[in-house]
Design a protein that fits this description.
single chain; about 350 residues; Rossmann fold; 2 domains; six-stranded parallel sheet; binds flavin mononucleotide
Length: about 350
């Protein structure tokens, strides 16, 4: 087996003093190239990490460019963040500061590590380390939630003694756990490479006037989780999503729709090229027969007439061919019987 390449991003947390040991242990599962931020250099020297990793240690975005631009033909300058991005089988950031996470959430690329994260297709694993009050700060928690929604993996932080001497959550996860998580990602089977997977998610909204709609309680979370799982196995994913509060995972093509009719149109448009169709959306069975142009006034009782929406899954199942089709049935009674009838 050729050795997998792990790019280890080390940032300016005091836990960076553990980087040397982490590199030693990571070498058991792959080849390690360290990328350090400016602040990380306050805690650990690049020279030591060169020694333990047996590889170059990258400390600046323009380092190689400055050195090599004069000896390469015009237009063929070395762009190291791209070559590193392509080389990586895993980008592990350990320890990860509050600062690097905030930069990643916002797509800021002002040093080698943050630029590399934007450029790479490799899976990203983050091991945060910071003081408890920082970790519990609402802004940081929001950033962590956003990064998880985008498909970034997390390991730790854990409860324990912090650099300040206090006990609390914020300590870097044990190195053994970081290595184990990294190994798990490196071993992930990419059995869906070149497979095209079409997934629908979320509810549909069926307007009855310009300000109201009927809908259902679907959050979209299952469909979005399926998108992430398919991406991590190497699939090319198209997500057709009804309105949700979720951030789409990076790496998927996302098509936003509102109504069942719109969802049908997009499914039909994308179905042909799909190898697998997972119909996870909670498509409204009915829509108001008439969509009022003006807001319905709340002065009198009225009866709302509904008409059937298209059954998208049933329709495409007639053109199934060799595709795999997956449907879901949410029932209130006779679960198996009803699900079988749908199948
Ligand atoms: C002694 C010391 C220890 C620090 N430890 C941490 C830490 O554990 N976690 C953290 O998020 N920031 C910590 N910081 C703050 C970061 O170094 C600072 O936010 C810096 O800008 C991070 O830069 P970087 O993310 O580019 O590495 C520490 C600062 C100092 C002076």
């Amino acid at each position: 087996m050729p050795k997998k390449t792990i790019i280890l991003g080390v940032t300016g947390s005091i836990a960076a003093i553990k980087a040397e040991n982490l590199v030693k242990r990571l070498k058991g599962i792959g080849r390690v190239i360290v990328v350090m931020t400016e602040a990380a250099r306050e805690f650990v020297s690049p020279e030591r990490l060169v020694k333990v990793s047996g590889n170059r240690v990258v400390t600046g975005l323009f380092e190689r460019y400055r050195k090599e631009k004069t000896c390469l033909p015009a237009g063929r300058e070395t762009v190291e963040h791209i070559s590193l991005a392509e080389e990586a089988n895993l980008l592990l950031i350990a320890p990860a500061t509050a600062n690097i996470m905030a930069k990643l959430v916002n797509g800021i690329a002002d040093d080698m590590l943050s630029t590399l994260v934007l450029a790479t297709q490799a899976p990203i694993l983050i091991a945060p380390a910071m003081n408890t009050d920082m970790w519990e700060n609402a802004i940081i928690q929001e950033n962590v939630t956003k990064l998880k929604a985008r498909g970034y993996g997390f390991v730790g932080p854990v409860y324990g003694r912090l650099a300040s001497g206090r006990m609390g959550k914020g300590r870097l996860a044990p190195l053994g756990r970081i290595v184990k998580e990294s190994e798990k990602i490196l071993k992930e089977k990419k059995e869906l490479i070149k497979k095209r997977i079409l997934i629908t998610a979320g509810p549909t909204q069926e307007p009855l006037d310009p300000v109201r709609f009927i809908s259902n309680r679907s959050t979209g979370r299952m469909g979005y989780a399926l998108v992430q799982a398919a991406l991590s196995r190497g699939a090319e994913v198209t997500l057709i999503s009804g309105p949700t509060q979720l951030l789409p995972p990076s790496g998927a093509e996302v098509i936003n729709v509102q109504t069942a009719k719109e969802m049908r149109r997009e499914v039909l448009r994308n179905f042909k090229k799909a190898d697998v169709f997972i119909s996870c959306a909670a498509v409204a069975d009915y829509r108001p027969k008439k969509r009022e142009k003006k807001k319905i006034k709340g002065e009198r009782n009225f009866t709302l007439e509904l008409e059937r929406n298209p059954d998208i899954l049933k329709e495409v199942s007639k053109k199934k061919g060799k595709r795999i089709l997956v449907g879901f049935a949410l029932e209130t009674e006779n679960l198996i019987k009803n699900a079988k009838a749908k199948l």
